[in-house]
C-alpha cells in the first residue's frame, strides 16, 4: 500500500526544489568536466616474466603467513599465562563441565566475541577521558585558583597531544599560557613535563589512536593502572587524615575500573545452521535434489521455529524480506536476522536541500521554522517564535518513562530481601589492587 502524504503540497514543492538543484548540479559538473579535460597520457610498464611474478607472490604470502603465525603464537602464550594466573588468583577451577551438552561451540564463540567487543569498546570509548581527567584533577589540585575552563583548554589542546601523539616533549604555546596568571604560567611546563613522561613511558607505541587501540586494546592498560594507583594513594592518604574536618579536605578524584563491570545478565548467543540441529533435533531435514545449502538451511529453520507468528507464511522470501539463517537469543527474547530488498532510488533522493536553497517567502509559506536545543538540564527546548517556547524537563521525561516509580519499587524490594546491604558491602572494582578487586 503506497504511503499517503501528510502534507502533499509541501512534498510536491520539495520534489520540485530537488529537481531544480539536481539540474543545477549536473550543469555545473558538465562545465567542470569540459574545462578540466586533458589528453590521456600513455605509459608502458615493464612486467616481469610469469615465473618472477609467481615467485614474488609466493614470497609475499610466505611473509604474511609467518607474521600471522608469530602473532597467533604470541597471543596463545599470553592467553595461556593469563588463564593460569587467573585460576591461581580465583583459588578455584575455571572449567565448566559439559553435562551432556553438545554443539555448544558456536554459542561459546558468540559469547567470547561479545566479551571481547565489550572490552574493546570500554577502552576505546573511555581512555581519552580517563587520561585527560587525571591531568585536569592534578592541575586543579596544584593550582586551585586557576579557572577550570583554562585548565581544560590546556589539557585538551596541549597535554593530550603530548601524551598520546608526540614522541618528544615541547613547551606550552604562548596562547594557552596567556590564559593563566604570570606566576602560574612560568611554572606550567616544568610541572607538566614529568607528569606527561610518567604516563607516556607506560605506553608501548605512539601515536595512540582509537584505531590502533581497537587492534590492541590492552596496550593502554599500564598507563591506566598507573593513574588508578595514584588515585588509590590519594584516597588512602585522605582516609588517614582523621584530624581534619570533611569540609577542609581537598576533593577526591573520580576513580574508574580497569575492566568493564561484571554483570549477571543473560548473554545473547547465536543460533545458526551449525548448532540448530543440536538444539532442535527435529529441525533436521533431508536435502533435496539441486537444492542449495542456503535454502536447505532455511527449510530447517522454518521446521524448528514458528515463523507464522511473525507474519511470514512461506520461506525463503516474502514481501521483500529474506531470512538470513540466524538468530540471537538470551533464553527469553530473540533477535531474528532478516535482509530487506533494496528499493530502486532516483537521483533526486541523493540531493540534500539546505536553508540557502529556499527564499524567505517560500519558508514563510510552506514551513514553520523552530530552533531546538538539547540543553544540559532539559532533554530539549524548542523555540517557535514570539513567546512560543516548548520544553521537556528531565523530571517530566523520567516520570513519563516510569523509571522513577520503577526504581523506588526495585529499591524497596531489595531492602525487603536484604540485597541492598549485600550490594553496599561489596568492595568497589575501581582499584588497581588485585586483592581488593578479587574481594
Describe the 3D structure.
With 439 residues, the protein is of the alpha+beta class. The protein has helices at residues 8-36, 50-90, 105-142, 148-164, 174-177, 182-200, 210-215, 221-239, 276-279, 293-304, 360-366, 394-401, 403-417, 419-425, 434-438, and strands at 269-272, 317-318, 321-329, 334-340, 371-373, 380-383, 389-392. Among the domains are: 105-248, no CATH class; 269-340, no CATH class; 402-438, no CATH class. The chain contains 15 helices and 7 strands. Strands 1, 2, 3 and 4 form a 4-stranded antiparallel beta sheet that branches. It has a 3-stranded antiparallel beta sheet with strand order 5-6-7. The chain is extended. The two termini are 61 Å apart. The model has no long low-confidence stretch (mean pLDDT 80). Residues 23-33 have a biased composition (Basic and acidic residues). Residues 23-68 are annotated as: Disordered.
- Strand tally: 7
Distance between the termini: 61 Å
Instruction: Output the helix-strand order.
Output: HHHHHHHHEHHEEEHEEEHHHH
Helix segment count? 15
Kindly estimate the percentage of residues that lie in beta strands according to DSSP.
5-15%
What share of the residues lie within helices? 40-55%
How is the biggest beta sheet arranged? 4 strands, antiparallel
Overall form: extended
Which structural category do the helix and sheet elements fall into?
alpha+beta
Nearest-angstrom radius of gyration?
A: 31 Å
Mean pLDDT: 80
Unreliable segments (pLDDT under 50, ≥5 consecutive)? none
Biased composition (Basic and acidic residues): 23-33
Region (Disordered): 23-68
